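TICKET: design request
STATUS: open
ATTACHED STRUCTURE:
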């Protein structure tokens, strides 16, 4: 029954996205909700992105600097390897896993609460495409703001490594900066940005799906929020594997 239920959920998700991904009936209302979404889902997430990226970047450089102690490897390898880790995986994939908990649970709870309080039913009765009205602005705003969050994460992660080098001298600051610049490929930044936008769509749409189909009371809304975080995490990891093979394989 669980397999059949999973298949049904995929079908329900596809039908919901068919209703969501249409041209809004009132563009002014869409733009208003879009701006709200940019602020509540994107701008309010900058602080957690900056804090986590700074300390993780510092830890990455510290661990690589302490463990790479071979005369066969130049010391600038610490900066080069740290840059690759931060740009390729941390600032896109790992950060999106964190945002799946913050943003995904918020979206699922908000829409789930509207469902159990019959606000969505009221919109449907008035002839409004409730899925398009409620979900599309959230998806569009989060996907649009994801590149900003990724760039903040990359920058603060590298700054965290810089601070550790300045503090511990493992390696020296000049060596670390030289390593960051060595063999740098701009395409990796665009790869991470595109990947994060895809993850942004997954996070917002899956969370909205669980909230939109919530039933019961407050307990069920909490369960929908939890399910959205779990499923989003799995989908992000699976799509990360697939997209990496397609883009870099």
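STATUS: resolved
RESOLUTION: sequence designed for all positions
ATTACHED SEQUENCE:
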């Amino acid at each position: 029954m669980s397999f059949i239920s999973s298949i049904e959920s995929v079908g329900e998700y596809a039908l919901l996205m068919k209703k969501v991904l249409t041209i809004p009936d009132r563009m002014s209302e869409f733009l208003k909700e879009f701006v709200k979404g940019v602020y509540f889902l994107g701008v309010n997430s900058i602080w957690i992105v900056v804090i986590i990226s700074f300390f993780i970047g510092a830890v990455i450089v510290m661990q690589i600097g302490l463990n790479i102690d071979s005369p066969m490897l130049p010391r600038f390898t610490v900066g080069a390897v740290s840059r690759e880790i931060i740009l390729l995986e941390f600032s896109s994939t790992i950060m999106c896993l964190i945002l799946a908990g913050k943003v995904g649970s918020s979206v699922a709870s908000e829409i789930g609460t509207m469902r159990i309080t019959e606000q969505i039913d009221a919109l449907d009765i008035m002839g409004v495409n409730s899925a398009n009205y409620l979900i599309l602005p959230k998806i569009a705003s989060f996907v649009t703001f994801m590149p900003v969050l990724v760039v903040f994460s990359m920058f603060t992660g590298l700054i965290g490594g810089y601070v550790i080098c300045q503090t511990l001298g493992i390696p020296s600051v000049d060596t670390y900066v030289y390593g960051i610049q060595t063999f740098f490929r701009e395409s990796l930044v665009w790869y991470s940005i595109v990947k994060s936008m895809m993850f942004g769509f997954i996070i917002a749409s899956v969370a909205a799906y669980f909230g939109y189909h919530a039933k019961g009371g407050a307990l069920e809304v909490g369960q929908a929020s939890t399910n959205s975080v779990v499923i989003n995490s799995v989908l992000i990891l699976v799509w990360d594997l697939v997209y990496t093979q397609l883009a870099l394989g």
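CLOSING REMARK: The two ends are 37 Å apart (CA to CA). The longest helix spans residues 77-116.
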